[in-house]
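Most newcomers find our protein records easier to grasp once they have seen one. A learned vocabulary of local backbone shapes supplies the integers on the structure line. An example says more than a description, so a record of this kind follows:
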Amino acid sequence: MNSSSKIVLDRLIAKPIAFLLNLIAWPLGKIISYDHSDSPEKVHTIAIAKLLGMGSILRATPMIRALKTKYPKARYLFITTLKNKALLERLELFDIHLYIRDSSFLNIFFDVLFLLPRLWHYKIDLYFDLEVYSAFSTVITTLSLSRNRYGFYIANTNFRRELHTHLVYFNDYRQISSIYFQFARACGIDKGDFGIEKPILKDELKVEFLKAMQKNKFPETIPYIIINPNASDLLLERRWPMEYFVSLIDALVIDWPNPIFILGSPDERNYSRACWGKLSDKAKKNVVNLSGEVSFGVAMVFINKARLMITNDSGLYHVAASFKIPTISLWGPGRPEHYADTDTRVDSFVFYSPDIYCSPCIYRTDFPPCRGNNVCMKSIPPKEVYKKACELLKINADADTSGMDRIFETQKNKKFDIIIKHPGY
């Protein structure tokens, strides 16, 4: 099930259920008196739910560490979708992982039916719903019957009003880890660090990494670059144009003699393969497409050992940020001040075109105003990314960039229209 289908189901099914639960919860709240104490001696089980967004899970880890300082003896549950399992099991912050398969409506329906009795069994004292816009997550939060239910509110989430016991304003002009940390503040925790938790890379993953290097006839210690041209279907408009990535890689191999690896998920294999197929013959000798060829765990080892990663706004970017490797990240539909690193590392560089009228749009509309013509990403010149990459790699920038300029001008000058018109016009 793609992201668009999930949004439709959330609007048509989950939201009416949430409003119905409001009608039930409001009178019950007047009749039944609950103990909402959050003192450590009364908190035995804590649940955190983030259904979508690998990067969001990593960005929430400062809040979770802060909770553990006040509630060190509590049992911690994490609720998410099955696709985040590989990441979650390498964080080792939680005692219990609960997963929902979101590949189809029936899978979601039956998994929720099995999930709710487990949540009731655990008798949750604090439940933190990290989803901002989702009525579906609100329904699960409410039906968990947790003593304290924390959630975010914005203008169009009135369906949460009587369902959460604690609502925190979601200010999307703040960095996301700082926003999540407001839940810890709601529990009386004022101090904490905002460093992302590093996924734990066990020895078996490192063995698989060595096998992948040997398969491609590269020594273990050779320096290499990671390229991630992909973005999940949450918003494909986050992808920098494929032609830009191709021209960038073709230029880099002029002075970079070592491997360049393309990473992505199995679902992104074909897109990455198409990108590789457009490379020059010289570049193809240096570039290996690993999308879907290695597990997510092994991909994290590749990222951890990389000399540089060039990536769109995606989950893999946040993995790179957790390992603090040099990165160049490319932003458009999302605002980097909201989701990127806020530190002052000289080896982490962000490209963003703030003058594009409709940027940012992600999470603010159900579909992008540009309808695929993502000028925010097309406005990032490949020549500038190339120069910055050479600077971080400490290599010469000797490639002929005139081809980059031509591609950039062609893409940048395409007709752009964000007006939604009635079909009769």
